[in-house]
Amino acid sequence: MPLRVAIPKEITPGERRVALVPTVAERFARLGAKVVIEAGAAAGVHYPDTAYAGAEVVTDPAALYAAADVVLKVQPPTVEEIALMSEGVVLVGFLQPHRDPERVALLRDRRITSFAVELIPRISRAQSMDALSSQAAVAGYKAALLAANLSGRFFPMLTTAAGTIRPARVLVLGAGVAGLQAIATARRLGAIVEAYDVRRATKEQVQSLGAKFLEIPVDAEAAGGYARELTAEEKQQEQAMVARAVAEADAVITTAAVPGRPAPRLISAEMVAAMKPGAVIVDLAAETGGNCELTRPGEEITAHGVTIAGPLNVPSMMAEHASEMYARNLLAFLTPQIHDGRLELDWNDEVIAGAALTHAGQILHAPTRQLVEGGDKHNDD
Ligand code: NAD
Asked: Which of 380, 354, 351 is nearest to 367 (CA)?
C-alpha cells in the first residue's frame, strides 16, 4: 500500500488556507504517495477537488482520517479531529504547543506522532521547511498593504498638476522575517521607512532594503567584539528614540515577538496620544497580546484619532500564496523521510528530532513536556 497523505478541510473559523496545493500534491504523488483530500478542502484557495489530479476525494472526515498514514494540517486539530486519527498516524502542522497543553496530552495519549512546524530548527538546511518564515513573510507584506489601505495619505511621493505630495513616513518595529517584508513592501510603495529591532544584526538587513535603522549613538561593543548589555540610561534613551519615531510616523507596523512569550509592549497609550491624528498602527503581534497597549486583537479601533488594527491570522488573508509556500515547506520537510513511497522517519535527523512534539505515547519536546506533565524544569526550547 502506498503512503496515504491526507488533507482535511480546515475547520478553524476564518482559516482559508489548505496544507497542500495541487502542484505540491503532484510532487508527493511522484514520491510514490497517494493523496487523499477531503471534498472542498481547497475551496478557500479556489481549487476545485478535481484540480488534485490522481487524488482520492472523500466527503466524510472520519473516512479521511481512517485512511491516513500522514495528516497535513494548517491549524492545530480539534479534540474531535484528534479522536478520528488512528494510533501511530503522523501529523504535521502548526500545533501551537505553548497554547494548548491539553491537546498535546491528547496527541500523546492517542499515540500520534506529531510534528509542530513551529519547532523545526532554524538552521540553514531547514530554510526551505521554515513555515514560520514563509507565513511571516506573507503577514509582513499584507501588514504594509493594510497600513496603506487604512491611511488617508499616499505612501509614495507624487508630483502632480495639483501639487507635490510628500511621501508617508512608515515605522516598522521588529525587523524579523515579517518586519523585513513589511519594510520591503512599504519601500516598494514609495514610503520613507524607518525600523528598529533589539537585535543589532538586523541593521544591515534594514539598510539593504533602503530603510533607516534607528539606534542611539552609543558604542555597545565590549571586550572581544561582543555587544554588552545597554545601561538603564541607554535603554531609556532608546525608548525615547522609539517614542519620537512613533510620534512622527504616518503609519507604524509592529511585529516584535519573543518566542513562546507574550508580545513585548512597545507603544504605550501615551505614545498613541502623542501620534499625529490620522496615523495608523497595524499590530501584527495582536495574536500574542499586541505590541501596542491599546490594540484589541481581531479589531480595528480609533483612539486619539489614530486607527489601531490588530488583525488575526493575517496569512489566511493571502490564502493562495500562503498555502502554496506552506505546502512547499511541508514537502521539503517530508521528502527526505520518504523512500520508495514509504515513510521512514530518521530520528537521528536533527530536523525530525527537533520538530517532534509527541511520539509513541511520549511528549518529546522537553519544554512542552514540562508544561503538560510538570516535573523538573527543562530549558531547551
Ligand atoms: P520573531 O517573529 O520571533 O520576532 C520578530 C522580531 O521582533 C525579531 O527580529 C526580534 O528581534 C524582534 N523583537 C523582539 N523584541 C523586540 C523589542 N522589544 N523591540 C524591537 N524588536 C523586538 O522573529 P522571526 O522573524 O521569526 O525571526 C527571528 C530570528 O530567527 C532571527 O534571528 C532570524 O535571523 C532567525 N531566522 C533564521 C532562519 C534560518 O536560518 N533558517 C530563518 C528565519 C529566521
From this structure: 380
Q: From the CB of residue 262, how many other CB atoms can be counted at a distance below 10 Å?
A: 11
* Ramachandran angles phi, psi of 213, nearest 5°: -95, 125
Q: Give the C-alpha separation, 58 to 79, whole Å.
A: 21
Kindly list the distances between the CA atom of residue 318 and the CA atoms of 45, 46, 256, in Å, as whole numbers in the listed order: 9, 12, 21
Is 181 in contact with 141 (CB distance < 8 Å)?
Answer: yes
Beta bridge partners of 281: 252, 308
With a 6 Å cutoff on the Cβ, whether 130 touches ligand 1 is yes
* pLDDT tens readout for residues 266-300: 999 999 999 999 999 999 999 999 999 999 999 99
Name the residue with cell 497580546. Answer: 289
Pocket test residue of 117, 120, 122, 292 for ligand 1, highest count of atoms within 8 A of CB: 122
CA separation, residue 102 to residues 77, 79, 286, 368, 373 (Å)? 12, 9, 23, 11, 10
Give pTM, 2 decimals.
0.94
Contact 65, 9 (CB under 8 A): no
Give the integer Cα–Cα distance in Å for 61 and 14: 19
